[in-house]
Amino acid sequence: MLRVADADPAGSDALGLMAQLDAALLSMTGDSGASSFDPGDVQGEGGAFVIAYAANGAAVGCGALRVLAGDTGELKRMLAQPGSGAGAVILAELERRARALGYRQLWLSTRRVNTRAVQFYERHGYTPIAPWGRYIGRAASICMGRQLT
After folding, report:
1. What share of the chain is helix, strand, coil (3-state, %, to 5)?
2. Can you list the alpha helix ranges (DSSP code H) found in the chain?
3. What is the tens place of the pLDDT at every residue in 15-43?
4. How far, CA to CA in Å, does 61 sit from each of 3, 20, 91, 132?
């Protein structure tokens, strides 16, 4: 059984998980993605950073939520150890929190080459949307979204 808990993105478990994510993205895409994450964005009002822990206490995944604009939140820094089931648990928790915060939709961006992530989000109801902000004109990126109502 997995337990999801609030966490400080600067804490040791969070830093360890995000280092794993950085390394995986760097090897896959040539960019760790770290420059698109500001821990301050998820620590204030409208944000969250969570870690999933296995029954043995091991940190097996993380994810973040930040306000994007109005009733739209953005998912950031999602990572789950393969086979742990943490991805779906973390996503469900972040969606629950987003609803409680009044978000009507969640958006995210990932790399097209990260087919595992794209397929994961598709299985959970996310569909391609128009790129926004820093993702406009970036062919390597795919933006996805889901209505929460």
Report:
1. 35, 30, 35
2. 12-29, 40-43, 86-100, 115-123
3. 999 999 888 888 888 777 877 888 888 99
4. 10, 10, 10, 26
Other Cβ atoms less than 10 A from the Cβ of 3: the count is 11
Predicted structure pTM score: 0.93
50 and 90 in contact (C-beta within 8 Å)?
A: yes
Beta strands 72-80 and 105-111, pairing class? parallel
- The Cα 149–Cα 130 span in angstroms is 20
Helix, strand, or coil (residue 140): coil
Domain ranges of the chain: 3-147
N- to C-terminal Cα distance for the chain? Answer: 28
Q: Which two tokens stand for residue 55?
A: 């029954």
Looking at CATH, the fold of the domain delimited by 3-147 is given as: Aminopeptidase (3.40.630)
